[in-house]
Amino acid sequence: MRKADRWYASINLQCDDNVPAPMPYGHPIGVDVGLSKFLATSDSEIEELN
Q1: Angle at CA 44, nearest 5°, toward 41 and 46?
Q2: Is 29 in contact with 43 (CB distance < 8 Å)?
Q3: Tens digits of per-residue pLDDT, 26-46?
Q4: Between the CA atoms of 12, 15, 18 and 20, what dihedral angle is there, to the nearest 10 degrees?
Q5: How many CA atoms, within 13 angstroms, populate the side-chain half-sphere of residue 22?
Q6: How far is CA 18 from the centre of its chain?
Q7: Global pTM value
Q8: pLDDT-based confidence at residue 20 (cuts at 50, 70, 90)
């Protein structure tokens, strides 16, 4: 495909292999990055701005 003065190529492949889904492990947490605090996790850990 040519757009403007450059050429672009797109290659798509299809195969019939089954890829297993990864098994979850550990303890998941959420992280919120903010303006008044550096970050806060869903485990109630808060990191202050320095």
Answers
A1: 70
A2: yes
A3: 887 787 777 777 888 888 888
A4: -30
A5: 3
A6: 23
A7: 0.34
A8: confident
